[in-house]
Amino acid sequence: MATIDHEDGRAIAQKVERFVRDIVVPYETDSRRDDHGPLDSLVHEIRARAREAGVLTPHIRPDGSHLSHRATARVLRASGLSPLGPLACNTNAPDEGNMFLLGKVATPEQKQQFLDPMVAGEGRSCFLMTEPAADGGTGSDPSMMQTRAELQGDEWVVNGRKAFATGFDGAKFAILMAKTEREDGTPSATMFLVPLPHPALQQERLISTIDSSMPGGHAVVKVENLRLSASAILGAAHEGFAYAQIRLAPARLTHCMRWLGAATRANEIATEYAVRRQAFGKALIDHEGVGFMLADNLIDLKQCELMIDWCADALDAGEKAITESSMAKVAVSETLFRVADRCVQVMGGTGVSHDTIVEQVFREIRAFRIYDGPTQVHKWSLAKKIKREALARS
């Protein structure tokens, strides 16, 4: 079965790659975008092209089941060959991670209302967990969550503020995470599904950030007297932290998959530039300093591919893969940033211009080193695990 899945993944990835290179890449110069990302009119158009080409949501089979993580790695890497590719193919964050979580824990009714339209590419979603630092809210430390949901009679009443709500502006629904208390007073968290727009969720502002590939941008959202019935709870009450782990481990990895595709494309552009551009009587690539940078890129891209496959295999084996996903996220984000940096350097002035996507890939991967957990937080978590295991052996 795994072999068949891998073969399916290769065939789907090849189809996605042809679509991205032939159809999506020409849209990279389309003016329908703002400082935060492509406008929905552009997303709708390229998504319609993907539906027509049979590559919309290609990592989910018609019966609703997902490809293996290893097969998904090939497909998402192919979609990532353009910054617009994941949006066109419906493999973009946060939607891809939200689809995965809904598929795991949503009720049949919730899947029909929220998941099915998203799989069909009929709307965007957002994930509301991070909170403003000025409020002392949660970032990498979920125990700092300030947004609270209190049970009042038959309703949950939610109040708080969220930040870096990617894609909130224009999303069809949100997965909202809030602090709750069990009957014995033990602190916990619960996830809720909230249709958007909703009068109790008001966008305060859009945060200007270094990246610019997310429609709707990254919003600060005020949640005021949001009243929800028990049917709005995603999965079970008080299990939000556990569900976050279900979502985050694969989501960290799929980020790696998409950005591996983007860095691969940036390296292709830099290589073509180095072969064609002349300086001091010969092609740039024939200068050792440039040639060695491109050689390092080739090595680093292969190492990232192997790291992703290793983590994907752990997930496919049924492991939680929290440690593996942390290691992969650190290694791949840091390595791909070096790849993107070298691409900019090889191309000189052209590399920092908007003439190619190289400068955008550089910016996006710089942000990736923070999103879904900064490198230092993951290393700190790994160090704690190393200490526990060392003490257990002594």
Automatic annotation (TrEMBL):
InterPro entries: Acyl-CoA_dehydrogenase, Acyl-CoA_Oxase/DH_mid-dom, Acyl-CoA_Oxase/DH_mid-dom_sf, AcylCo_DH-like_C, AcylCo_DH/oxidase_C, AcylCoA_DH/ox_N, AcylCoA_DH/ox_N_sf, AcylCoA_DH/oxidase_NM_dom_sf
Cofactor annotation: FAD
Keywords per UniProt: FAD, Flavoprotein, Oxidoreductase
Record bears the keyword Oxidoreductase: yes
Pfam families the record matches: Acyl-CoA_dh_1, Acyl-CoA_dh_M, Acyl-CoA_dh_N
Residue span(s) of domain Acyl-CoA oxidase/dehydrogenase middle: 126-203
GO MF annotations, alphabetized: oxidoreductase activity
Top EC group: oxidoreductase
Domain spans labelled Acyl-CoA dehydrogenase/oxidase C-terminal: 239-385
Family indicated by similarity: Belongs to the acyl-CoA dehydrogenase family.
Name the record gives this protein: Acyl-CoA dehydrogenase family protein
Natural source organism: Sphingobium tyrosinilyticum
